[in-house]
Specification:
The structure is a single chain. The protein is mostly helical and 403 residues long. The chain has one domain: P-loop containing nucleotide triphosphate hydrolases (Rossmann fold). The chain is 58% helix and 6% strand. The protein is built from 19 helices and 5 strands. The chain has a 5-stranded parallel sheet with strand order 2-3-1-4-5. Helix 3 runs antiparallel to helix 4 and helix 6 packs across helix 16. It starts with 8 loop residues before the first helix and ends with a helix. InterPro entries: P-loop_NTPase (IPR027417), Stf3_sulfotransferase (IPR052736). Pfam families: Sulfotransfer_3 (PF13469). This is Sulfotransferase family protein. One of its GO terms (molecular function) is transferase activity.
Length: 403
Amino acid sequence: MRARTAWWVGPVNAWLDRRAADARRSPEESFDRIAAAAARREGTAAEAVDPDFVADLRLLHGFVHTDAEVAALGRRAFDGEIGRHLANRLRLDRAEARDPEAAARPVERPVFVVGLPRSGTTLMHRLLAAPSEHRAPLLWELLAPGRPDAGRAELRRRRAAGRLMVAQALSSTPALRDMHPLRADAPEECTHLLPHSSWHCTRARLPEYGAWLARRDFTADYGYLGRQLRVLSGPGPERRWVLKSPFHLCHLEALLSAFPDAVVVWTHRDPARVMASWCSMVEALRGVFTRGADPADLGEEWLRTWSAAVAKAMAVREAAGPARFVDVDYRELTADPAGTAEKVCARIGAVCDGPARHRMAEVARWPGGPRSRHRYSAERYGLDADRVRAAFAPYLAAFGPTA
């Protein structure tokens, strides 16, 4: 079963491609225009951004604009993403300069929810955001991070940008309503704060970029994540950050190095169920941003990516020791979301009072919870259950999830 994109995506991509052919700019000129526009929005000069930060984003831009598979909407989406990260860096540098004391404040005992995609990480994350002592970043904050005590006009602008992004995503890919419901004012993945991750490869295959990511040392990236969290914390009382992304499995060593007192909550589900669900979502996204993807190739690509990421994360976990990890079985989580979250809260030292339990019950009823209507077929992606489980054999031997 294929998750289809909106009817207008194909005609719009074709029209934009014709226009682009008439006014093609070099990737270098295109990137310079993006950087200049980001600087204008933030009221500063593009040269103010760290040169290494700019060079890495220029590299991503070049990979996108020289890849024949990327469609016009894909190029525009990546251009917007690159401009967003440049503007965010300028805003962060300005906020740190204004309040160096807040910029030096440690991010204490953060909670990171990780696990294979489609294994309940979103549900677990939103449940753990319920205690009043916890703070999960909202989507609009992640897209344009800044001080929470900024002026009303700036906060309105940042919220509006988040709502626009959600509207665009749901308009082009209506199936996201069942796959991964989006709301600008709901907790979302902190991957949006990282300029570089395999998340970009959900929109397009980008093999050269993927190879570059595999060679990259992500220590500085997670340090940058910490800087943004400090600014988002603002001057108010300290609350414990609760963060989430399956892609943290790819760089768990860098994460634990940047956040030495972090607790990792790891959700577990049968990889044979996970992979088909994930490929269905990626196929829907790439249907907007690329010229299409062969389902069997898609299955092979992500089976290789996620089995390698899990193997790498398991090695890091073994070296770090079990005390920093809390395991959650998908079957238990979906059967009793609030009860499972209470057990996790007890393990990580969080208070789960009456108001928190009420919020957890609301999360369990939210679309995309344990009763999501997302439908998919493993056969479409060549993901025979035995083959998938063989690729994840060490993981299954350690955790044995078969839900």
